[in-house]
Amino acid sequence: MPELPEVETTRGGIAPYVEGEVVTEVVLRRRKLRYPVPQALLVDLPGQAVDKVERRGKYLLLRTEAGAVMIHLGMSGSLRLVDADTPAEKHDHIDIVFENGQALRLRDPRRFGAMLWLKGDPMQHKLLISLGPEPLSDAFDAEYLFQRSRKRKQAVKLFVMDSHTVVGVGNIYASEALFRAGIQPQLAAGKLTRQRCVALVEAIKTVLSAAIQQGGTTLRDFVDGSGKPGYFKQELQVYGRVGESCQQCGATIKQLRQGQRASYYCPGCQR
User: Fold this and answer.
1) Residues 91-103: pLDDT tens digits?
2) Of 55, 56, 58, 107, which is the active-site residue?
3) 30 is an active site residue
């Protein structure tokens, strides 16, 4: 599933090619995705120039004077820049076509993604308004995490994966950050000390920044705007390495289930 680094990689990849470009048409091949594609997108977007491509959490926003296109890549979606006359394949559901002959194409095999048309301030939309701070922003610091975690019995891994706590810390990156911070994933969030919050915030920022630099993590479906995979998989220290030896202490990497997701940790390094 594309997480924050993959979405940010996509944003950075497409922004230079679509900002300032005028949309000529929207080609819709499948309306039923996670949410039905609104007819207003097909009517209102053509003729608009893309002013800016932004990201909020795992959502992409293509801002125009008339409104904003909000895109979520779901479980297996990707956005690619192609020549507008490139034949569509089975899972290519939507094209945003530009005057320069290029098209931004949404491919989504599992159809859990979304493309919506928002009027007004998109940050007030119900899917965005209650999101927590961006993890790489100054708003996400140790004191915020410490205060937010007080009296919370929820496991710390699930706590940092909650988008109301902080956005974009998905399963892979939560496992990796907790390893770097030396914190076991099943620890109750309310037991975090200020010192451990400092370590965890630093680890989350480090892991996400490194993943963005590597173009994300390709485990199955993710590719960036030009169709290239991400390479952060080569940097993973615990995720997907159950039964292997820890590269730091030599202990055997273990796995447990949390919130119906697999968690990976080192019993030697994480307490």
Assistant:
1) 999 999 999 999 9
2) 58
3) no
